[in-house]
Design a protein that fits this description.
With 105 residues, the chain is α+β, with helices and mostly antiparallel strands. It has a domain at 26-95: 2-Layer Sandwich (Ybab, Chain: A), CATH 3.30.1310. It is built from two helices and three strands. It has helices at residues 3-28, 65-95, and strands at residues 30-35, 40-45, 50-55. A three-stranded antiparallel sheet has the order 1-2-3. Helix 1 (3-28) packs antiparallel against helix 2 (65-95). The two termini are 30 Å apart.
């Protein structure tokens, strides 16, 4: 095996380890999305996994379930966007700000 290839493999192992560390960090981080002036709050981790949904009882109207559904969707989307931004920020530390298609995950 040429020396250059061995060095490349070592670099790739370091990058893989760093990616794993960042993924673990992202799993621990929390972001919130809200809708309806805070009546709906969605908590997600940095991996875009939804962890909690909080609904203020005042927004629950059996005659307008559609509005509640729309607020939940809006809050979930906001939380996921924030988590995605967090991913991009954390992974840019690894890539030095380079944009790599399909990266971070």
């Amino acid at each position: 095996m040429p020396k250059g290839f061995g060095d490349l493999m070592k670099q790739m192992q370091k990058v893989q380890k760093k990616i794993e560390e960042i993924q673990k960090e992202l799993e621990e981080k929390r972001v919130e999305g809200t809708a309806g002036g805070g009546m709906i709050t969605v908590v997600a981790n940095g991996k875009q996994e939804i962890l909690e949904i909080k609904i203020d009882p005042e927004v629950v109207n059996p005659d307008d379930v559609e509005m509640l559904e729309d607020l939940i969707v809006a809050a979930v989307n906001q939380a996921r966007e924030k988590a995605q931004q967090l991913q991009m920020e954390d992974m840019s530390r690894l890539t030095g700000g380079l944009k790599i298609p399909g990266f971070p995950f």
